[in-house]
Design a protein that fits this description.
globular, D-Maltodextrin-Binding Protein, domain 2, about 45% helix, signal, 16 helices, ABC transporter substrate-binding protein, alpha/beta
């Protein structure tokens, strides 16, 4: 009887210990706004599907806000704690003399994600082939357009003089405009570029990402006040992102495609695999979250070339690398 009593007390103690431990594990909720839903952001979806955020005690609520302006507005109005968007938006906010600047703290993609698609099949493409053609470009002021024009200029083409540049079509309608016959060439994201190639609508002939080099194309950012007030949550978030980046780097493209397929239900697995492999092969997925100064300066050069750089903002003003460096060195 005495032995049973001792066992009972021991079990009760164990139960209370586990219960108190569970109560002590607080979950931090973070609202994340992504600029669009894209296979380009595969590591983010991997972090969600593999439970890397949960492992850090984070509950991440992901919302797609469809556009840089809307995403930044959502962040600035506290509709989101973290935004996944192009770094150029943080420079635009800084130029408006915001009291609470937006800080880039973890890079997700490090190249442009668009491709040059030709209506006709090209066997020996040269950039000078675009001269005299009709080019269906991206929205003025956005990173795709700025990178597109930068690459054209680097290859001796004046976008305003050497071709007919169309920029008055909404982002969502660019693919359908090309498919219906507008333009000889078009600048497209994946998976649309690969879908067009598969259907014979167009042919991928060049990568703007390969041509433009490393830039902080899509970055996780938060208001400076949020980082100051809850730096621990930002560290946990960055740690989860880094785990996902390493996972994507180490796994075959097909494994990543299988994992993120729920986010692209209308896209076939083999197509997702093709896109992941293409982005991975050209180094579009950042392998760590550090946004270095060289990438930042490349971004500013592209913006300046496009006439869209409102002011020269030093790397140290809008980029926090300390958090990412700490995570990597753990």
């Amino acid at each position: 009887m005495k032995k049973l009593k001792v066992i009972g007390i021991a079990l009760l103690t164990l139960f209370l210990t586990v219960a108190l431990s569970a109560c002590g594990q607080q979950t931090t909720k973070l609202k994340v706004a992504e600029v669009t839903r894209s296979i380009f952001y595969a590591p983010q979806y991997v972090a969600l599907e593999k439970g890397f955020f949960e492992d850090e005690g984070l509950e991440v609520e992901l919302t797609t806000t469809w556009g840089g302006d809307k995403t930044m507005t959502t962040l600035l109005s506290d509709g989101a704690d973290i935004a996944l968007v192009g770094s150029e938006t943080s420079i635009y906010v800084k130029a408006r003399e915001a009291n609470d600047p937006v800080i880039n703290f973890a890079q997700l993609t490090q190249t442009d994600g668009t491709f040059l698609v030709a209506r006709e099949e090209v066997t020996d493409f040269k950039w000078e082939d675009l001269k005299g053609s009709t080019f269906l470009g991206q929205r003025k002021g956005g990173m795709p357009q700025m990178v597109g024009e930068y690459v054209l200029k680097q290859n001796g083409i004046d976008p305003q003089q050497d071709l007919e540049l169309i920029q008055n079509i909404d982002f969502a309608n660019i693919p359908s405009a090309f498919a219906s016959g507008t333009g000889d060439y078009v600048q497209l994201f994946e998976p649309t570029a690969s879908i067009f190639e598969k259907e014979g609508v167009g042919h991928i002939i060049a990568s703007f990402g390969e041509e433009s080099g490393h830039v902080p194309y899509t970055v996780f950012m938060a208001k400076a006040s949020m980082i100051d007030e809850d730096e621990e949550a930002i560290k946990k978030f960055t740690r989860a992102v880094y785990k996902a980046q390493k996972w994507v780097e180490e796994q075959p493209a097909e494994e990543t495609a299988k994992l993120i397929q729920p986010y692209f239900e209308d896209t076939e697995l083999d197509l997702i695999t093709t896109v992941v492999d293409r982005y991975k092969s050209q180094g579009s997925f950042a392998t760590d979250p550090i946004l270095d100064e060289e990438e930042w300066n490349n971004l500013k050069a592209i913006m300046d070339e496009a006439g869209e750089l409102p002011e020269d903002v030093p790397h140290a003003d809008l980029v926090n690398t300390e958090i990412a460096e700490e995570i990597i060195n753990e």
